[in-house]
Design brief:
The protein has 12 helices and 15 strands. It is α/β, with parallel strands linked by helices. The protein has a domain of about 260 residues: Aspartate Aminotransferase, domain 2, CATH 3.40.640. The strands form 4 sheets. It has a 7-stranded mixed β-sheet with strand order 3-9-8-7-6-4-5, sandwiched between helices. The protein has a 4-stranded antiparallel β-sheet with strand order 12-13-15-14. Strands 1-2 form a two-stranded antiparallel sheet. A hairpin with an 8-residue loop joins strand 12 and strand 13. Helix 2 packs antiparallel against helix 9, helix 3 packs parallel to helix 9 and helix 11 crosses helix 12. The longest helix has about 35 residues. It starts with 15 loop residues before the first strand and ends in a 45-residue tail after the last helix. The C terminus is likely disordered. This is Glutamate decarboxylase. Its cofactor is pyridoxal 5'-phosphate.
């Protein structure tokens, strides 16, 4: 969203008045214009520092999936690499090498057929990574259509209405029709059969989310793949899957080893994840991988020559720091498989215990229990809904510094309003107990109300959606006609 200059800031346009620092004279600093001259670095620092004190405490922000804690050694490495531009691979060949090693590590983690020939890259986050995955799907579909002499002007992408907002942006920016599968009853994410029913010869792919931002649940990637296999057998329409593993792709490999969701499924063409979420790195780094070279059209890749070798690059952003990539490599080295497993296990243990405790308080009912992502959603039971809403609860917890988002679900379940808790590395059992104490403290006051004070329309939780923005679900389509070609050969 474009930033607009405020009509007024509540201070009648008054400049910032700076108190004396040590022996310095008082100053006035313009708010929205460059100062006429220089000032001491300590003065500038204090002005910015003091205003930032009014921000929320990131460690108490249970709305965000983004990492809010890192080891001092990781922060030190990031500071040492802040000036390195990630795209300058010939000037910073070791940073480029560390990026490549991370890609290979993720390829093995996600069961790529030949990790040594892994195709992937770092990005600024999972949103950019998702758009790159979508672009590759669109380009592959367009090439197949043109090779078959068929029109390629009406691409569509099938996904659940619960997808993160970056997919809506992708569809808008790159002229792809989004087809959203609505929620129905107690199904709060994409269903396999529902996805297949919306696919046709113009479908560039299906997005399966491993860890919905609405409630933390995994979408059934293997079931979706099986439904698309059946669709191809019946119609010849071959639809690949992109797995949006922004969070779950760094949870499932360590905690759910028997879950089939990654490149072990032949229909999965690409996977993205966020290094700065459960990859345990400070913002902003993401990753996107393709199962092989064929899944990423070569005309989307720019080839850079450095040290006599070829370094392919594929990204929407050009200049960006290498610090986060270095921090990702450090974290991979530091923790290893077992370390990641222990960190993610602790997060899930905290989430499942906290969900159970909140569900046992009486006024709340949990929709999910934190058993997939260490994330869960809960609502106010009908017996207390006449006294307070989830928006009242969110506002009351904010008095103690907790940032817990409250929001309504999208089309077909707009009757459902919930709170959501994201448990990240650094949110301990002790902090969970403090949250429970504050929740218990505000409940008597909320239950004493004669009617709710806050509602969704009040905008109390504006900016708190974090991927739960409403989207328009697509109507059901008739089954696609049988294609002339058999599509992917040998597909079971």
């Amino acid at each position: 969203m474009a930033l607009k200059h405020p009509r007024h800031d509540g201070h009648r346009g008054r400049d910032i008045e700076v108190n004396p620092i040590f022996s310095r004279e008082p100053l006035k600093v313009p708010r929205y214009a460059l100062p006429a001259g220089e000032m001491e670095p300590g003065t500038a620092y204090q002005i910015v520092h003091d205003e930032l004190m009014l921000d929320g405490n990131a460690r108490l922000n249970l709305a965000t999936f983004v990492s809010t804690w890192a080891e001092p050694e990781a922060l030190r490495l990031m500071a040492e690499c802040a000036e390195k531009n990630m795209i300058d691979k010939d000037e910073y060949p070791r940073t480029a090498e560390l990026e490549l090693r991370c890609v290979h590590m993720l390829a093995r983690l996600w069961h790529a057929g030949d990790p040594r020939r892994a195709v992937g890259c770092s990005t600024t986050g999972s949103s950019e990574a998702a758009m790159l995955g979508g672009l590759a799907l669109k380009r592959r579909w367009r090439e197949r259509r043109r090779d078959a002499g068929a029109p390629a002007d009406r691409p569509n992408l099938v996904m659940g209405v619960n997808v993160q907002i970056c997919w809506e942006k992708f569809a808008d920016y790159f002229d792809v029709e989004p087809r959203y599968v609505p929620m129905e009853g107690d199904r709060f994410h994409l269903g396999a059969q529902e996805a297949a029913e919306l696919c046709d010869e113009n479908t560039i792919g299906v997005v399966a989310v491993l860890g919905s931002t609405f409630d933390g649940s995994y979408e059934p990637v293997a079931e979706i793949a099986a439904a698309l296999d059946d669709l191809e057998r019946r119609t010849g329409v071959d639809v690949p899957i992109h797995v949006d593993g922004a969070s779950g792709a760094m949870i499932a490999p360590f905690l759910d080893p028997d879950l089939r969701w990654d490149f072990l499924l032949p229909r999965v063409a690409s996977i993205n994840t966020s290094g700065h979420k459960y990859g345990l790195v400070m913002p902003g780094v993401g990753w996107v991988l393709w199962r092989d070279e064929d899944a990423l059209p070569d005309d989307l890749v720019f080839h850079v020559n450095y040290l006599g070798g070829d370094m392919p690059t594929f990204a929407l952003n050009f200049s960006r720091p290498g610090a986060q990539v270095v921090a990702q490599y450090y974290t991979f080295l530091r923790l290893g498989f077992e370390g990641y497993r222990r960190v993610q296990r602790t997060c899930r243990d905290v989430a499942t215990r906290l969900a159970a405790e909140i569900g046992g308080l009486g006024p709340f009912e949990t929709l999910t229990g934190g058993g997939d992502l260490p994330v869960f959603a809960f609502r106010v039971r009908d017996g207390d809904a006449g006294r307070f809403t989830v928006f009242d609860v969110s506002a009351a917890l904010r008095e103690s510094g907790w940032l817990v988002p409250a929001y309504t679900f999208p089309e077909n379940r707009t009757d459902l309003a919930v709170l959501r808790v994201v448990v990240r590395n650094g949110f301990s059992h002790d902090l969970a107990d403090l949250l429970l104490d504050d929740l218990r403290r505000v409940l008597p006051r909320l239950r004493a109300q004669d009617a709710p004070r806050r509602h969704a329309a009040d905008g109390v939780s504006a900016g708190f959606a974090h991927g739960t923005e409403p989207k328009k679900a697509a109507p059901k389509k008739a089954a696609p006609k049988k294609a002339r070609s058999a599509g992917r050969s040998g597909q079971p």
